[in-house]
Every structure is written in structure tokens, then in C-alpha cells.
Design brief:
By secondary structure, the protein is mainly beta. The protein has a single domain, classed as Porin (Beta Barrel). It contains one helix and 19 strands. A hairpin with a 3-residue loop joins β7 and β8. The longest helix has 8 residues. The chain starts with 10 loop residues before the first helix and ends with a strand. It holds the Pfam family Porin_3.
């Protein structure tokens, strides 16, 4: 098994703080799969503050004999998105893909070529956008050895002949314990810890500090499984924001999630947020 991509380093801890929370939204997700193997997924949400509604439809079809995956998306902003990917054909562990998007109302078109390769010790990702004026090249790599992970991420603007991103990361994973640290552009320092304390309890800690402004962020979170169909979540940060969540599987293919964000500094002033999400799968 190859190391994770650079963007997935520390994902276990981030999931503790992000999954199961939908503050200020009414959300609906639906997924299904046809007998021919075409996957359909649609999602929509309504912002409780602005009343704005956003929706998206995605279809995905895989040709396993050739390692091909075709993905098409459309959203209510009237943006069309297409991706064609081929996996493990030219070389085991190599994935090549092309992404394209088109907004008919504005005429904006974007394209991106992507390549990713992974083996037991290395995971490399790169992409370049299709821009004749000067493409932006993104590249990242993660090296893993005996639980240790070291990663580097960079972006190069060919139009300006300048490196615009310069990130480093170091981590360690061992069974139920994951440690992650990173430095972004020499300005933002971050770290996270994930610990699976038991089969029912997952805990996470996140910390970040930005030089210059001396802004510090700190948070702790946990997820506890009451049984195989229900779980509760809680998190709190140094701004006294408290997040609570409850997830219940009502029946096969139907999951309800309730969440709330409480402002501990202004508890009596109100302004707290709630979120409701319903997931349907068949």
C-alpha cells in the first residue's frame, strides 16, 4: 500500500473535525447505481442565512477492463465538468487523467492534466492547467518508511517564473495513532494528532500558528459510536465555538445527521447555528 497523497496527510484528524457537521445548512445527498454499473449521485443544500440553494448532479462510469473512469458533473451555477482517467495501464500505480470545465453563461473554459504514481514507499502527484499564457504547475510527493511520512508540495507559475507554493510536512503513523506536522510557505505552522482510543472512540487535536500575526488556533474533537447505527460528535476550539453532532442510520440506505454550532462567548446573544443532513443510498 502506497503512502497517502500530500493533501491526505493528517486526514484522520481533519475528519474528526469536519465529518458529520453541516452548520447553517439543510442538506440532502442521494446515491444510486444502475445494473450496468453507472453511479449517480446528487446533492443539494440550502443556506439558512441567505436562503441560497445549490445543487449538483454527478455520473460516473468505469470500464474495468481498460482501467477507464468517466465522470461528469453539473451544478446549479450552470457549470459543466468532465473527467477522463486511466489507471494502472501504462504502469502499475500510475494514474493519468484530464479534467475540463465549461460555464456556458460566461464562456469560461478550464482544463487540467493530472498524473499520479504510487508504490510501497512513494506517492507522487502533479497537475498542470491548460493555459497558453503560462500554465501553473503543481507537484507534491510523499515518502514513507516504517511508519514515518515526509512530504513536499510546490507550485510553479510559468508566466511569472516564480514558485508560489512551498510546503513541507512530516508525520508518523502507527496502528491507531497518527501524528502530522506541516509548514506552509514558511508562514503557517500546523500540527494534528489522531488517536483511536477504542473501537467506539476516535479523538483528534489540531493546532496552528501563523507568524507575523501570531494568530493561534487550537481545537479538540471526538467521535463516539453508540452502536453500529448511531454516533455522537463533539468539538471545541480556542474561540469557544462548540460543535455537537448526532448521526443515526434510520434503515439501510437512509442516514440522518443533526448538528449545532454554539458560540460560547455570546451564548445569551443567540446566533447559534444548526444543520440537518439526510443521506439516501440505494
Amino acid at each position: 500500500m502506497s503512502p497517502p497523497s500530500y493533501s491526505d496527510l493528517g486526514k484522520q484528524a481533519r475528519d474528526v473535525f469536519s465529518k458529520g457537521y453541516h452548520f447553517g445548512l439543510w442538506k440532502l445527498d442521494c446515491k444510486t447505481k444502475t445494473s450496468s454499473g453507472i453511479e449517480f449521485s446528487t446533492s443539494g443544500h440550502s443556506n439558512q442565512d441567505t436562503g441560497k440553494v445549490f445543487g449538483a448532479l454527478e455520473t460516473k462510469y468505469k470500464v474495468k477492463d481498460y482501467g477507464l473512469t468517466f465522470t461528469e458533473k453539473w451544478n446549479t451555477d450552470n457549470t459543466l465538468y468532465t473527467e477522463v482517467a486511466v489507471q494502472d495501464q501504462l504502469l502499475d500505480g500510475l494514474k493519468l487523467s484530464f479534467e475540463g470545465s465549461f460555464a456556458p453563461q460566461s464562456g469560461n473554459k478550464n482544463g487540467k492534466l493530472k498524473a499520479a504514481y504510487g508504490n510501497e514507499h512513494v506517492k507522487i502527484d502533479s497537475d498542470v492547467n491548460v493555459d497558453l499564457a503560462g500554465p501553473l504547475i503543481n507537484a507534491s510527493g510523499v515518502f514513507g518508511y516504517q511508519g514515518w511520512l515526509a512530504g513536499y508540495q510546490s507550485a510553479f507559475d510559468t508566466q511569472k517564473s516564480k514558485i508560489t507554493t512551498n510546503n513541507f510536512a512530516l508525520g508518523y503513523t502507527s496502528g491507531d495513532f497518527v501524528l502530522h506536522t506541516s509548514v506552509n510557505d514558511g508562514q503557517e505552522f500546523a500540527g494534528s494528532i489522531f488517536q483511536k482510543c477504542s473501537d467506539q472512540l476516535d479523538c483528534g487535536v489540531q493546532l496552528s500558528w501563523t507568524s507575523g500575526s501570531n494568530a493561534t488556533k487550537f481545537g479538540i474533537g471526538a467521535k463516539y459510536s453508540l452502536d453500529r447505527d448511531a454516533s455522537i460528535r463533539a468539538k471545541v476550539n480556542n474561540a469557544s465555538q462548540i460543535g455537537l453532532g448526532y448521526q443515526q442510520k434510520l434503515r439501510d440506505g437512509i442516514t440522518l445527521t443533526l448538528s449545532t454550532l454554539i458560540d460560547g462567548k455570546n451564548f445569551n446573544a443567540g446566533g447559534h447555528k444548526i444543520g440537518v443532513a439526510l443521506e439516501l443510498e440505494a
